Amino acid sequence: MLLRFKELRKVGGVYINPRNFKVAPLFIRDWRDLVSLDEGTYGVYARTIYNPKQRFLIMDEKDEKIAKELEGLYRELLKDPLRFCREEYHRYQLQVGEFKGLPFANGWAGSGIVLVGEAPGRQGCGKTGICFYRDASGMLLRKTLFTLGLNPDFVYITNVVKCNPPKNRLRGFGEGELELLERELEVVKPKAIFAIGRTAEKALKRLGFEFTHLRHPAWYVRRGLREPNEEILEEYSTIKEAFGE
């Protein structure tokens, strides 16, 4: 579950995880080349540093302590999934997932910046296990952060609901999902939390955390957006401000 920073390789101003590549990329000049990589040629996880076996980036001993506690929470989810996921969601997740295990979270354990999404998407996290990755919403978020000068792999990303709802139709959340999210955030101890979408906003309000609400990238995707425009860049610039940049 742990990914050590020294395992990464910097190419063209971005970091890659060599383990995620079926073949080495011929060239990567910048993040635009990275997000354009063909997964059939390079691998499903080539456009991120994470994969289902390496979900938490660690840079020092403090990060490692946090990551191991998160790993413990993930093991609890695997041991008793129906405690934290609705049965119908869990059953559907097992059908659509193309990896061993369940979606949980991924990112730099010590970043202090947490993005809380709603639930895994059918073509994104539900299939790959990596939050906000591969589907239209996930790639729009990644492009937006890159455009703002932030590497999306260097924040911590999770979801309120851990299993993909059937046909992506999310019907709220239960107490088990709230419990797991609360424990997760208590481990990470974020300095800034961003609620991505209304479901995340409602969950974080219930739990009493301070946060900033942002419209879900799917809101923009439904309006035809595939590349960042001024509106989404202005809205998501609050994440950059949280980094103090």
From TrEMBL:
GO terms for molecular function: 4 iron, 4 sulfur cluster binding; deaminated base DNA N-glycosylase activity; metal ion binding. Transmembrane segments: none annotated. PANTHER family: TYPE-5 URACIL-DNA GLYCOSYLASE (PTHR33693). Coiled coil: none annotated. Keywords: 4Fe-4S, DNA damage, DNA repair, Hydrolase, Iron, Iron-sulfur, Metal-binding. GO terms for biological process: DNA repair. This is Uracil-DNA glycosylase. SUPFAM superfamilies: Uracil-DNA glycosylase-like. The lineage of its organism: Archaea, Methanobacteriati, Methanobacteriota, Thermococci, Thermococcales. It holds the Pfam family UDG. Residues 104-237 form the Uracil-DNA glycosylase-like domain.
